[in-house]
Each structure stands twice: as structure tokens, then as C-alpha cells.
Amino acid sequence: MSYTKEHVTQARVLIVGAGIGGLTLAALLEKAGIEYIVFERAKAVVPLGSALSIGANVMPVFEQLGILDEVLKNAKPFGFSTGYNEQREATRVLDYTPAKTIGGYLPHIISRPILYDILLRLVPTHKILMSKKILSLVQNKDGVLIRCSDNTTFHGDILVGADGASSGVRQSLYKNLIKKGELPRSDNAPLPFNSVCLVGQTRPLDPEEFPHFKDWHTWFETIVGENKPYAVSAQVSRLLMPIILCSFLRLPQLLLEVSQVVLEGFKV
Ligand SMILES: Cc1cc2nc3c(=O)[nH]c(=O)nc-3n(C[C@H](O)[C@H](O)[C@H](O)COP(=O)(O)OP(=O)(O)OC[C@H]3O[C@@H](n4cnc5c(N)ncnc54)[C@H](O)[C@@H]3O)c2cc1C
């Protein structure tokens, strides 16, 4: 395909993907006064998901963006993450408390849609182009040119692939590197898909019935099934409990059964 001047819009940083990664970068560039555009293939922003655990090392970024207080208001810290067997005996405890000594913060659990909303507010709407699926990229001495599924093209100095685990930007880069024989073999291996993850959350729960909600910190608990192909993780958020079920089999019907075990576990 040949590109004409009319096709080309000038921008400095082109960010593909308006997920948490793309929006965080956009917010930082906005603050730094660097030109950018975000391209998102979805028609509209629909913040989905349940809980996100944010590493302690991310907190200074929120501080820099001026949103730390808002994030902390909506999040709960955790110092430990505990793994249990089915008898609810702790079999593994991960201690995150040294993070506080080293960097000043504990890791936190926050509702993913809330964090997404906080970040989205930092990026002017006109700088996020929706329904723009990036199909290909061409690098040349002047920068990089991307082509979208609606046949529009955009030119920039830097392209950032924030387009998720199956990043098309990365695949395009790899194609070029493969042609030149420069892609390391380990990078050419397909992503392993050996388990299924189901994510959900409870309805808002009554703290009188589930007193763990009154604690200042969250509980990050995992129950590993005995001779069963699944594990369940749950965290206590502000009023509801996000649950993640990881299974090596496609057994979504187990979610109900297992989440009941978790809820009962939190009652005692
Ligand atoms: C069950 C589960 C639990 C997780 N829990 C955590 C956790 O607790 N903490 C944590 O840090 N991480 C967690 N992760 C990983 C987490 O999802 C990622 O850290 C985070 O979402 C990555 O954000 P991202 O912006 O890089 O990518 P994504 O959230 O995947 O966003 C990518 C965006 O790019 C868009 N896009 C894709 N292709 C194109 C294209 N060609 N053109 C234009 N747009 C495109 C997509 O529509 C999407 O909006 C979890 C993942 C799963 C599956």
C-alpha cells in the first residue's frame, strides 16, 4: 500500500490500546506535555473485570500523576497472601511487608473498573480514538506509520504497543525481526495456554455477616483444591469480594461450588 500525505496525521507518540497500561502512559505524557494519541479497537470504553492487585512499586507512579490519594481511598493494602488447603490450613504465606520498608508502600487491591475510571479522567477524550484497530506498522527513517482497519493511517515518532497479551504491534515487530533473522528463538515461542481463568465478584456483602470487610487491610487468600484441577483466589475489597478461579480444565460450573466454599471460609 502506498501512503499519501492526506492519509497521514502527525503525532509524536502513538499508543495502541486504551487498557490500564496505555492509559497510564497517556496520563504521564499528558502531564509531561508530550504529544500522543491513543488508538483503541473497541467502540466504547467498558471498564470490565473485578479486582487488580497493584504492586507497591506502582504507587510512586500514581503519586507522580497526582492520583495517589484517590487510589488509596478506593483500595485496601495487603501485607500477606496466604494459600490454604481444603481444610483451611495455611500451606504457603507470601510476605509483602518488606516492600513497605524498601519503597514506602504495601501492595494494594483495587476494583479494576474504579482504577480504570481514575486513569481515564486524566486523558482528554479527544486524544483517545475509539474503533481504531491497528492492523500493521511500517518503520522508516522518519518514524513509524500505522494502518487501521478503517484504512486510516497515522504517523508518529514512537509507537507503543499497549495492546495486551496477544499484542498485534509485537507480532508486527517480530515479523520484521524474523525477516532479518534477529528474533531470539525464545521470543518466537507461542504464548502457553494451559489453564482457564474465570473472574467474577460477589454482590455487595454485609460487613456484619462478613466481619473481614471491617478490617483496614484486605485479605488475599487462595484455596488450592486437593487432587482437583483448580484453585480459587479471593480478596476482600471495599464491600464485595472479587474471586478468581484458575482451572486446568474447562470447568466453569465449578465456579459456583468453589466460590461457595470461599464465602463460607470467610464467615468463620
Ligand atoms: C484473571 C486475570 C487476573 C489478573 N490480575 C492482575 C492483577 O491482579 N494485577 C496485575 O497487575 N495484572 C493482572 N492481570 C494482568 C492484567 O490483565 C494486566 O496486567 C493488565 O490488564 C494489562 O493491561 P494492558 O493495558 O497492558 O493490556 P489490556 O488490559 O489487555 O489492554 C489492551 C487494550 O488494547 C486494545 N487492543 C488490542 N489490540 C488492539 C489493536 N490491534 N488495535 C487497537 N487496540 C487494540 C484492547 O482492546 C485493550 O483495550 C490479570 C489478568 C487476568 C487474566
UniProtKB/TrEMBL annotation:
Residues 11-177 form the FAD-binding domain. GO terms for molecular function: FAD binding; monooxygenase activity. Keywords: FAD, Flavoprotein, Oxidoreductase. The keyword Flavoprotein applies. The keyword Flavoprotein applies. Gene3D superfamilies: FAD/NAD(P)-binding domain. It holds the Pfam family FAD_binding_3. Belongs to the paxM FAD-dependent monooxygenase family. This is FAD-binding domain-containing protein. It comes from Mortierella polycephala.
